[in-house]
Design brief:
The complex is a heterodimer of chains A (575) and B (80).
Chain A: E1 12-17, H1 26-41, E2 47-50, E3 58-63, E4 79-83, E5 94-97, E6 102-103, E7 126-128, E8 131-133, E9 138-142, E10 145-149, H2 154-157, E11 160-161, E12 184-186, E13 189-191, E14 196-200, E15 203-207, H3 212-215, E16 218-219, E17 242-244, E18 247-249, E19 254-258, E20 261-265, H4 270-273, E21 276-277, E22 284-285, H5 286-298, H6 324-334, H7 367-371, E23 397-401, E24 404-409, E25 412-416, E26 424-429, H8 430-433, E27 443-446, E28 453-457, E29 460-465, E30 468-474, E31 489-492, E32 497-502, E33 505-510, E34 515-516, E35 522-523, H9 524-527, E36 537-541, E37 544-549, E38 552-556, E39 562-567, H10 568-572
Parallel strand pairs in A: 1-2, 1-3, 3-5, 6-22
Antiparallel strand pairs in A: 4-5, 7-8, 9-10, 10-11, 12-13, 14-15, 15-16, 17-18, 19-20, 20-21, 23-24, 24-25, 25-26, 27-28, 28-29, 29-30, 31-32, 32-33, 33-34, 33-35, 36-37, 37-38, 38-39
Helix pairs in contact in A: 1-5
Chain B: H1 11-21, H2 27-32, H3 35-49, H4 60-67, E1 70-71
The chains are: A alpha+beta (575), B mainly alpha (80).
């Protein structure tokens, strides 16, 4: 809190938005401020009412450089906003620097969660009434038709839009076998996906409408320059397409870093063209910055806890939650109210999970032994070096263990390291490396912190630390209910969390306490839009999410953009 | 061309304006006390507040933190 524990002497506070940034729809800014106030009213007796005239307790404005309070802003980046502690006049007010790019923080303005008339997912950007949308805020279903509203206040604006009726999905690639790079232009029309693909005379083609027989609209994807490797000044990967000097780019050839800023060159012969471009920034989340500033308006000072909302430096968080440090501060000033209990840090379980009776020949261990550091797994003995991974139609599980991709199938596995020229190693025996593990598994992942390897088969899971095994145990132990089928894959996140996928849902597993977090499962399609919902394998590799179905994989960036579709064998196994 | 972008402030100027703006030094201290000592002390205070390694030096991590986007409310004291 500020010196003297400055606070409001009443609980029913009012706020007024004096002006708006041009970066976002007014409705989206109103919606973000409303959600930002809710962060604090959820854990205190405070209430917040928006008024549209007169003097409110908290007056909110956008301004740039010197904006009337003697504390000038500083142009793009750097200082984002500030606010004053509770009191009369300017006290309590919040100001936002309008030289910043204000977005919802993930670079795109609104988000769709629905599909088009035939139930397929929206593909972005899509045009509606001549306006291009990259997402939509709210969605629903009328007369069986899904729609998506492009502003939060859709009641008034009635801006509905049906995603384009074309069911477009690429599985194609261009003549050198590499996946299409989107959007691509064919016959003067820009396509961001295509429905069917095939190969004629050695060329790959992709049909651009579902009923391609009649339309015969085939197109050869443009020869790909290279895949994107660039990023923007915040160090985030490029968000595509982006425009630079009025030209729209979907990839860039080379990248570099100057003065901490990432750049990407847009042609392979960039020396001569000097066509440099900074990928558009993701912008700053108006919701997150507002929630922080309103903390000041209510009497909170800065925190030293990095994960706390009141920490002074900005960082974008997808699934935002108040930190106990924030909750204790605001409840010290205003008490708790009827809001939900703040989520206290979950205590590490004291009871040791009793290892289930295990199959003969494997040594189960108690938790203590499990903590010992991982012995390097002995060099596996190839059981069948003639068995070629490139002959497999698909794999039971794929995951990265100790920096190498592992491909599991029917009791055997192969390893492939992107760094060594040795290519694919194996086949090796699963039973030799992980005694007691069934021959056919559904999924596997290595916990990045402890290096333990988790395996899933049916509704059971095993945890290995070297050759020491814990399990099998039921996945219900993890809090995954009976409704879940086989686990199809896992994505390791930061801070000891792992996403487990099954069917069209996913859970967030806290590896340390071996329990899934509250509020799960969630619909995969809500976040991982544009990947097949019936993926057979899901894995993290080189910081990107890979969803495999049949012989194809869909690769997604940490910003949930599908940036590549291709063949597991040719691209990943490099057969 | 990115290489042609020249940051207007030198690191030292950036540091001084940052420490002043966010309350780690005052203009009085700026003028009177021994520059090196007061800078080291102010840097250590800032590094402690922001959970950085307390070196008292203008190291890479500290410079990066000074360049990172943040809230304008002072970390020490409040708006006057």
């Amino acid at each position: 809190t500020f010196e003297g524990d400055l606070k409001w002497d009443h609980m029913d506070l009012t706020y007024r938005v004096m002006n708006y940034s041009p970066d976002l729809d007014r409705a989206i800014i109103d919606d973000a401020f409303k959600r930002a106030f809710k962060v604090w009213s959820d854990v205190t007796p405070l209430t917040f009412t928006q008024i549209y005239s007169g003097e409110a307790d908290i007056m909110i404005m956008f301004g740039s450089q010197e904006h009337g309070d003697g504390y000038p802003f500083d142009g793009k980046d750097g200082l984002l906003a500030h606010a004053f502690p509770p009191g009369r006049g300017i006290q309590g007010d919040a100001h936002f620097d309008d030289d910043e790019l204000w977005t919802l923080g993930n670079g795109i303005v609104v988000k769709t969660r629905h599909g088009n008339a035939n139930g397929a997912n929206c593909h972005f950007p899509f045009l509606f009434e001549g306006h291009s949308y990259s997402q939509c805020i709210t969605e629903g279903r009328t007369d069986g038709l899904p729609w998506c509203a492009t502003t939060a206040s859709y009641d008034r604006d009635k801006k509905y839009g049906f995603c384009p009726s074309e069911l477009l999905y690429t599985t194609g690639g261009n003549s050198d076998g590499s996946p299409c790079v989107f959007p691509f232009i064919f016959d003067g029309t820009s396509y961001n996906t295509c429905t069917m693909d095939g190969r004629s005379d050695g060329y790959r083609w992709c049909a651009t409408t579902a009923n391609f027989d009649q339309d015969k609209k085939y197109g050869f994807c443009p020869n790909r320059d290279t895949a994107v490797i660039g990023g923007n000044s915040q160090g985030d990967p490029c968000v595509f397409p982006f425009t630079f000097l009025g030209q729209s780019y979907s990839t860039c050839t080379s990248q570099g870093r100057q003065d901490g800023k990432l750049w990407c060159a847009t042609t392979s012969n960039y020396d001569t063209d000097k066509k440099w471009g900074f990928c558009p920034d993701r912008g700053y989340s108006i919701f997150l910055v507002a929630a922080h500033e309103f903390g000041h308006s209510l009497g909170l000072d800065h925190s030293s806890v990095r994960e706390a909302l009141m920490y002074p430096m900005y960082s974008y968080i997808q699934d935002f939650q108040l930190h106990p440090d924030d909750v204790q501060g605001i409840q010290y000033l205003y008490g708790r109210g009827s809001g939900p209990e703040p989520t206290a840090p979950v205590p590490v379980p004291t009871e040791k999970p009793q290892p289930m009776p295990t199959e003969a020949g494997s040594t189960s261990t108690t938790e203590e032994e499990e903590e010992e550091t991982l012995q390097p797994t002995a060099t596996p003995i190839p059981v069948d070096p003639s068995r070629d991974a490139c002959m497999e139609k698909d794999f039971d599980a794929i995951t990265e263990i100790n920096g190498e991709l592992h491909f599991f199938k029917d009791g055997k596995y192969w390893t492939h390291s992107p760094f060594w020229k040795s290519g694919i190693q194996g086949a090796f025996s699963m039973a030799y490396t992980w005694p007691g593990l069934p021959a056919v598994i559904d999924a596997a992942f290595q916990d990045l912190l402890t290096k333990r390897v988790f395996f899933f088969a049916g509704r059971q899971f095993w945890v290995f630390s070297g050759k020491n095994m814990l399990g099998p145990r039921s996945i219900e132990k993890l809090g995954i209910g009976k409704g879940a089928g086989r686990i199809s894959g896992a994505l390791q996140r930061g801070r000891g969390k792992v996403l487990l996928f099954s069917g069209e849902s996913y859970w967030r597993l806290d590896v340390k306490v071996q329990r899934v977090d509250k509020g799960y499962p969630r619909a995969t399609d809500d976040v991982f839009t544009g990947v097949p919902l019936d993926s057979h394998n899901v894995f993290l590799f080189q910081d990107k999410y890979h969803f495999c179905r049949g012989s194809f994989y869909w690769r997604m960036t940490p910003h949930y953009q599908v940036d590549r579709v291709g063949y597991v064998k040719y691209d990943i196994l490099q057969c | 061309f990115p290489g042609e972008l020249v940051s207007t402030l030198s690191d030292m100027e950036l540091a001084k304006s940052y420490l002043l703006r966010y309350g780690y030094t005052t203009e009085v201290e700026e003028r009177t006390s021994n520059k090196q000592v007061s800078l080291g002390k102010a840097l250590r205070r800032m590094q402690k507040q922001l959970g950085l390694e307390e070196t008292g030096q203008l190291d890479t991590g500290t410079l990066e933190a000074m360049r990172a986007p943040r809230c304008g409310v002072p970390d020490v004291g409040a708006f006057l």
